[in-house]
Every structure is written in structure tokens, then in C-alpha cells.
Model the fold of this input.
Amino acid sequence: MSWKTVIGLEVHSELNTNTKCFCGCKNEFGDKPNTNCCPVCTAMPGALPVLNRDAVERAILMGLAVGCKINNYSVFERKNYFYPDLSKAYQISQLEYPLCLGGGLEIEVDGVKKFIRLDRIHLEEDAGKLIHTPHGTLVDYNRGGVPLIEIVSKPDMNSAEEAVAYLEKLRSTLLYVGVSDCKMQEGSIRFDVNISVNREGEPLGTRTELKNLNSFKAVMRAIKYESTRQIEELEAGRPIIQETRRWDDEKGKTYAMRSKEDSQDYRYFPDPDLIPLNVTNEYIDSIRAKLPKLAPQRKKEYMEMGLTEQDATLITNEREYADFFEKVLSYFNEPKFVCNWITAEVFKKLNALEEDDRKINLNPESLAQMLKLYKDGEINQAGARKIFDILWENGDADPNELVEKLGLKQMNDTGALRAVLEKIVNDNPKAVAELKGGNEKTMAFFVGQAMKATQGKANPKLVNEIVRELIK
Amino acid sequence: MKYIDYSLSEILDLLNSKKVTAVELVNSCFEQIEATADLNALNSTYKEMALARAKEIDEARTRGEKVGALAGVPIVLKDNINFLGTKTSCASKFLENFVSPYTATCAKKLYDAGAIIIGKANMDEFAMGSSNENSAFGAVKNPVDNTCVPGGSSGGSACSVAAKQCFAALGTDTGGSIREPSSFCGVVGIKPTYGRVSRYGVVAFASSLDQVGPLTRTVRDNATMLNIISGKDEADMTTSNTAVPDFTANLDKGVKGIKIGVAKQFFTDQLSSEVSTTLKNAIEWYRQAGAEIVEVDLPSLDTALAVYYVISSAEAASNLARFDGVKYGRRAPVYKDVVDLYFKSRTQGFGAEVKRRIMLGNYVLSSGYYDAFYRKAKRVQKVIRNEFNKAFESCDVLISPTTATTAFKLGEKSNDCVAMYLTDIFTVPINIAGVPALSMPCGKDSKGLPIGMQIIAKHFNEATIYQVANAFETAHKEEK
Amino acid sequence: MSITIDDVKKLAILSRLEFTDDEIKKFVSDLEATLKQVEAINKVDVSNVDLIEDTIDADTDLRRDVVIPSLKASEIVSNAPEKEDGAFLVPVTVVED
Done:
């Protein structure tokens, strides 16, 4: 009987509020140690937490985006454990009454669609950062108290590919909703994987939890490694131990982490410093009204504009692409033409960048101007690419000026082109014969020759027309 | 009459009519502190800081500027209340050298009203105790009889006020820690309604029960202090939006028509006969003064202590986990690694009673016991709360003894934690119900030790408490 | 409610406290005595008690997301037993969960 892998995911995503979850300190990455700290987030004796309204609102917004039920009664609890990055020695989190329950996301792998159910989304605070040096560990609480949502899925995934598709969809949704920056390198989105294997038709196996997964690639590799490991263990007659395992990205292996005797007993209880929340239906409705248009709706709208399903999917994969697409359209309303350029040329630029740095550095109005010049035949594709390269590097560049400055204006003068082409036709009887004989590929030869003779300015469309006329 | 013999309200009149300066007051308080140093009431004093502030206030007054409601009055804070630049030790070895990097809201309000902070009062370590013998810096003595305990945990605050080292002090009360020492030392102390006074900056013992309140020599002084420190605080989500009335407004209205409830559950056979008789006389006085005495029932009162030990210990175990030797306070000199640093620093830094409560708290929170203890206790708390609410449907205030006996001898109960816990049986239910209660002297026993009367009202009804208390105090002034 | 020496040892680890064998033994009897007192909570009928507590309104009663100036790093670490460049210093900490 074949093996089945069962995967559930816990995703922690920092919310992009101005201030921390329980104090007014700045929520900012990369500042000097302990410069965004106060008595509350460093657990000075006597300090008290005060809940940030926007953190609650963002958590609910995400819940609504993925179809959760928003609880009208919500409680913050203390999760008690000792660790130097946890200033109070407890984390304020939610257990019994989280903000959001249920919901889910649809993923697609190899053309097969699947609905992944969510268990819950709850709001909690992040821990600080430990900086390891040879002579000791430095503790920085700048990140301590930053609001996080934990998005817990049901164990509905059965392959590494499904898990990554789910993560990509979740990340995309977080970005659409606009509640998180989702920067993996900065740790603003983090993943824990619960994984078990069982033989088809048999009950679920014992699961392990994988930690330290810092990229989608790591998730993919770690799941593949761990499911293979578990199958090998079971086939060798060794039971799986329920434990937390750390992924070593360099070695490509998971290792059991040192377990503490009391690591399981977090002694959760309602935080007496924070009064339970009453989330009224009116408030939920007012948050729902702020929900931006999400991918499925935009995809539908774009297909109505004439985009293919594939193109509409590509351009709605990330909110940034869709927003950019719409902005360019607001200056130059040619959906298919604009979409083609974005999915071909813009994506090529983005793919050359690191995952976290993939940001469209373009002024949409300039791109629209350039595309209009191209569409109107004022410049050709080579010229368009040249201008695009410059626009990508310099947001202030003006396409019209560039056309002049670089002499990219297409040669649309029929008379002059005819003179050039007459010479080419006369000099290449063999090619003429081939074209006449029906070998359409030969046209490329004539276009190439025309470009050569005009320093690339010839309008290829005109060249085509004139050549056909001349050989008639 | 020396300056320190005046009440806070009287001294304010003298200050405002410029018959005395704040500098003179600070100096006379420090003379008294030195003269009564053997009581061990204060953990730290701030003479220079106090004199500088007194000078500022005197100058402002001389210039005719508007000054705060307490301008120039020397006061003491319990040593678990942060005030920027002062030591806040909680009478623990762990925080022996901790200097506050910020100021508690209640202290800030007093400071802004012109009160002069002259010192921090000794206490039971982290406010856990009923005798003030659990201090890392030595027991406090009762100023009435220095072979007796002053009560706890705000023993230093009560002692300092009774010994006339200051005109008022702040204490904290989680299960009786203001009222019990007030009773033992013969001063007036109130535990306000939960949510009346901000806890921001006050080192937490049990967050859902802790409340800050003033200890003073008269009822009027007490109301004057509570006026300043009450109110909603953006930094403490558990503070209430309920309006803060002028607590001195009804002081002289008398008790005619006031309904005073008496519950038999407060008059058990654990009461000493002298306390019992004195209380009954006080209630009789109220009847003659025009109050109506009604009998009320609080059937679950005797379970409050059990509820208290579960909830307060659970919260304390979690609240005191932050004392780990990483950020402030004691770090053991020798340790193997960071885990060992936790164990050693905490073991060396905490006293026996604190450790006992942490252990009990972790027991009732640990998996398998949480439902049986913590959740159950929270439910019983609600029952007790409802019983109090019901009692207040038929009366304006409840009167009970504050403690079953007068102050006991130093060392008498220090080896029997259960006997010590029983000291709190009449005060603990008030914190469990969240209602306000005041303790005031209502007589003395045959040894001359003060007997305390507890006046309880429904939530946010401190004004009625003060009205009832002041009637008794005014009528019995001569006996003091 | 009976407490064993092992129970107390486990609690000590949860509490990050160390005790001598004698102290552990004393804890067994202390805890048992306290828990006996605590059993009083079982006398009360709570079958009709709803634990849902008072709430505050998420829409109107929460803090607005506006930055409040932080303390200086030097103030944050002013009480630190050991510190370095504005950070708290602890012994080398292995990566756990």
C-alpha cells in the first residue's frame, strides 16, 4: 500500500501597524537594539499592555478575506514560558476564543484545484531578537510586542507542492489585504510545518513539527526530506516520535531539537490585564467595507476586459501586479497590450531579483506613454525595450524625450524606406525567389536588412508591406 | 502642637494660608523619620529631592501661582510603586538595586498635584503577606506596640502614617494589604473599587485583584487623596470610565436614612470577643445616629479565601516570571548557562513566601489542574460577586470587622502559613467581589491596640463609604 | 488532594526555582495544607455560572495606532545586570523553540 503525506501549516505574519500590539512603540525593522522600546515591551515591573485597535482590525480584515467567522467575543491569554527573547516570560496570545475561526483558500497544483480549510486566525505578539556573539547573546526587544497573526490550517495538504501553493496563495492574500509586508528575509512572515505519513486507508501517523523554514524553497525541500525520512523510519520498523525538528538548509536535513522537560505546559490563562473584547457585528461590517478587491474578483474583471484566463491569473497573482496594471490602464486603456508587456518584460525584470526585493520600480504613467508610442508605431520593439530598460533604472525618465535623445523614432517615411528596400530587393534575387515561392521566413531577412540599413529605425510593419509590393 | 500632629487637611490649610512652608514640613517629617527609624517603616528616603521640590512649590505659592490640590504635602509611596529615579525594591532581594526608569500613573498624579514624595515604604516582599515580616529588609514594627506586627503587606505605609512620618501614604491591596495594616496600626485605609485607580507602574502581584489606595490619619484626608489618584488611565485597560465624584462632598451629610447591612458570615466564632463587642457597639452607635440596620446574607463568603489563593497565586506565578535575571534586578554571580541563570537568580532573589505562591500558582495553572482550580475559582468568584450585588439591593453599605483580632506579636504566626492566610478572611472577599472597602479605627482592645471597622459599598460607591465613615469619626474624635 | 515529591520537583522546574530535599518535603506538606483550604471552592454550586466576563468594545475602547515616543536604549538597559551597546547580555543561548 502506498504512503500518504499529511501536512498542516502554521503561518506567522507580522502586521504592518504603526505601533506595537500592546504599546505605542514604533513597529519598525532594522533599528538599533532597544531603541523602539518602553517599559511595556521590555516588561519593566508594573508596566501594562494596552491593545492596539489597528492590530485587531487588520487581523479581522485578513479573517474576512479568507472567509473566517469573526468571533464576537475574543480573549487574550498568557502563554507562559521562559526564554531570553520573551521579556515578560509569557507571550500574549489567544487560545480558547481567537478572533477568527474557519475559512479557507483555494489552491491549484498542476491544473487541479483544491480547497484548504483554515482552523483559525488569532492575534498575538512577536518576541524580541537574539544576536549571537562569541562572548554571549545580545537581547534586542525592538521586535518584542510587534503584532502577529497566526494562521493555522487544517491538515489538508498532501504534498510539498500543495503546501507551497497554499503558502504562495496565503502570502498573496496577505499582500492583497495589505495587512502585512510578508518579507521573508526580515522574518515578517514565517512558517511552521506539521507533517505525518500514513498508509493509504489507515489512521493518521504521528506528526513532527518543522521549524526554521525561511523560504518557500526551504518548505518544499524540508517537506520532501521529512516525509521520506518518516517513511524510511516506519518501513524500518521504527516509530515516529512526536517532536519539533529544525531544518538545516545547508545540509538539507531536519534534526530533532533539544526538548525541555516542561516545554509542553504553557499554563495558558486569560490575561487579567486585558479585558475580553466585544467585537460587534456593526464593527465587523465596517471592517468588511474596507476590504480591498481581492484576486478572484479582479481576475473576473480582467477577463471581461479581454484577457485570457492565464494572463488574468498571472497578473492577479500579486496585488502589486494588479494594482500596477490598473494604474497603467488609467493612462493607456489597452488591457491586452499592457498585460502582455507586464507579463513578459516586467516579470522578466522581477524574476532576476531576490524574492524579497521583487518590487515594480516603474512610474506607471511613463510606462503607459512608452507603450502608446510603441502601439502607435512611433517606436519599434527594440526601441521600446531600450526605453523600458532606462525607465526601470530611472523613474523620472521621460519616454518622449528618450525617443528624441536616442533617435529611436521609427522610420515611417514610405518614400525613403522604399528607396532603401528597392536596393535590398535588387541585391538579393535568391531571397526574393524564396519569398515568392512561399517561404515566409525569408521576410525576416528583409526586415533585418532594412534595420541594418536604417540603424534599427525602420518600421517593420511598413517594411513588410513595401517588400510585398516590390516583389509583386 | 508640632506640624506633624496635624492631619493632611489641616496642614493644607496652613500651607495655603502660608503659615507653614513645604520646606518646613519636609524637614519636620525627616526629623520624625529619624526619631522613629527603629520601626523600619521606610526602605528608602529622598530628602534632597523632596527639599528641592518643596522649595519649588513654596516659591510658586509665594509668587501667587496656582498650585496643586496637595501642594507641599509630604507623602510616602509603597515600595512597589514606580517613581522615576527612586528605588522600587518591592522589599525583595531580587530588586534591591532597581531604580525606576518610569513613573506610575498614581504617583504621577500625586506629584502633579504638588505632593512631595519623601520615601518608599517597607512591605511584605512583592506584597505577599499579612504581617510585613516577609520583607527582605527586615520586619516593620507596629508603632502602637513595637512588639507587634503592623500588618501587611502595606505595613510600612500604615506604620509611617501612624508614626506621623508623613501625612499620607499609598499602599496596594490584593486581599487586604491596605485594610489589615490600617486596622492594626489605627489608621484609615481604603481599597477602592477595582478599576478606580490605575495600576500602571505598580508592580503587579495579582492583576485582577490589585488596587492602589491611600492610607491616612483621617477619613477626610483619605477622600482628599482618593480624589487625586482616581480615574480612567489610557495606560491601564482595566481602569473604568465611571465618573469620579468629589469624595469629600458628602462627608458631613450624616447617616440618617442610610441602610447599613450586617452579614452574619462576618461575625464568626473566629472573632475575638473584644473585636466583636467593639463592632457591635459601633453598629449600635449608627442605629442611634439614624441609620437603619438590616440583616443581609453572603452564603459563600467563607469560600472567598480559597478563591483568592487560587486566582492570586496563578496570576502571581505568571506576573513574577519576568524576574528572570536578564533585564534588571538580581543575576546570580555563578551559573552554567542561561537556563541555570534563571534558576539561580530566582532562587537567590526570592524569599520563601514568594516561592510558595509561585509554586502554588503554577500548580493550579498546570495542565490537568487548570479546570479543577483556576476555572472553578473564577466561577465561584462570580457567585460571590453576585451575592454582594444582591446584598447591596437592600443596603447602602456593609459593616464588618476588618480583622478577627488586633495586631499579633512579631513571629507569632510566621511559621504557620495557613494561620497567616486566615488573617485575611474578612478582607479577601472584597477583592474577590471587586467592591470598595475602607478600614478605620473604631476602638481599642484592653492592650490598647486599635480595632478596625470595615465599611463596604457597591462598585464605585466610595463616596457613601466616606460619608458613613466620617460620621463615626467625627462623633468619636475625643476618644482618639 | 495528595502531592508527591515528583509533583513538587516538576513544579519547581516550571517555576525556575531550586530547592533542597528538605525544602521539597516541606513543600509537599505546605501545598497539601493550602490545597485542603482551597477545596472549599467545591462547596459552591457553579453549574449555572457563565464565565463570559465583562467586555470592552473593540471598535471604541482600544488604543489608536499612533506612535508614542520610546525610551532611550540606555534607559531601557539602565538596570541590566550585564549589557552591551544598548542590548541586554546573557550567556550564549542555544536555539530552541
Remarks:
- Chain A has a mean pLDDT of 92.
- The first helix of chain A runs from residue 53 to 65.
- Chain A has three domains: 3-284, 295-405, 414-470.
- Residues 3-284 of chain A form one domain.
